[in-house]
Amino acid sequence: MKIFFGVMTTLSTATLLLAACGGAGGAAEPAEGAAAAGGEPALVVTDQAEWDSLAASGQASFDRACGACHPGGDADLGPALKGHMIPMTTMTTQIREGSGRMKPIDATKLPEEEMRGLMVYLATIGAVGDVKGP
Ligand code: HEC
């Protein structure tokens, strides 16, 4: 089940939800590319304190669930993630479904409630491109 955070305008939200939920889960669905290129953020956090706290908890989640293979967002067993600027939906699909030698990471290893913070942390290292901070 995909999750969508934050603020999108009604029309494009409906379109994105339909496209993403109906898709087979491929990493390159057109709606995801459009979300990244169209400049419409998938998640907006306007409060600095909230951003900082999400980034901190997200870093802890990352270190626990991803750090062994992408330490600090750099390459090791997995490729570097820093500067990738991929859409949040693509990142979520990669995490939940995996690819190649990266096994899916389910909610027992990475609970849904940690995803928001994780995405904020990933935005701070430029791994996710459509999350906007203060
Ligand atoms: C056990 C090692 C391992 C863990 C843990 C892991 N990854 Fe990966 N990751 C990989 C490997 C290996 C690949 C390359 C997969 C492929 O060849 O398709 C990869 C690929 C990716 C990609 C695609 C990068 C690209 O260049 O296409 C993203 C994004 C990603 N991982 C994010 C994450 C995140 C976020 C987490 C934690 C929630 C995570 N990974 C946890 C090993 C891991």
Brief rundown of the structure:
By secondary structure, the chain is an all-alpha fold. It contains 5 helices and 2 strands, in the order ααβαααβ.
Describe the structure.
- By secondary structure, the chain is mainly α.
- The chain contains five helices and two strands.
- The chain has one domain (3-23, 37-132): Cytochrome c-like domain (Cytochrome Bc1 Complex, Chain D, domain 2, Orthogonal Bundle), CATH 1.10.760.10.
- The chain has helices at residues 10-22, 30-37, 48-65, 88-97, 115-124, and strands at 43-44, 131-132.
- A two-stranded parallel sheet has the order 1-2.
- Helix 1 (10-22) packs antiparallel against helix 2 and helix 3 packs across helix 5.
- Heme C is lined by residues 65-66, 68-70, 77-79, 81, 91, 94-95, 99-102, 105, 110.
Helix residue percentage: 40-55%
User: How are the strands of the largest sheet arranged?
Assistant: 1-2
Helix/strand order = HHEHHHE
Q: Fill in the CATH topology.
A: Cytochrome Bc1 Complex, Chain D, domain 2
Strand content: under 5%
Bound molecules: heme C
Shape: globular
Helix and strand arrangement:
Layout (H helix, E strand, L loop, with lengths): L9 H13 L7 H8 L5 E2 L3 H18 L22 H10 L17 H10 L6 E2 L2
Parallel strand pairs: 1-2
Bound molecules: heme C.
Heme C binds next to helix 4.
Pick out its properties:
134 residues; globular; 2 strands; Cytochrome Bc1 Complex, Chain D, domain 2; mainly alpha; binds heme C
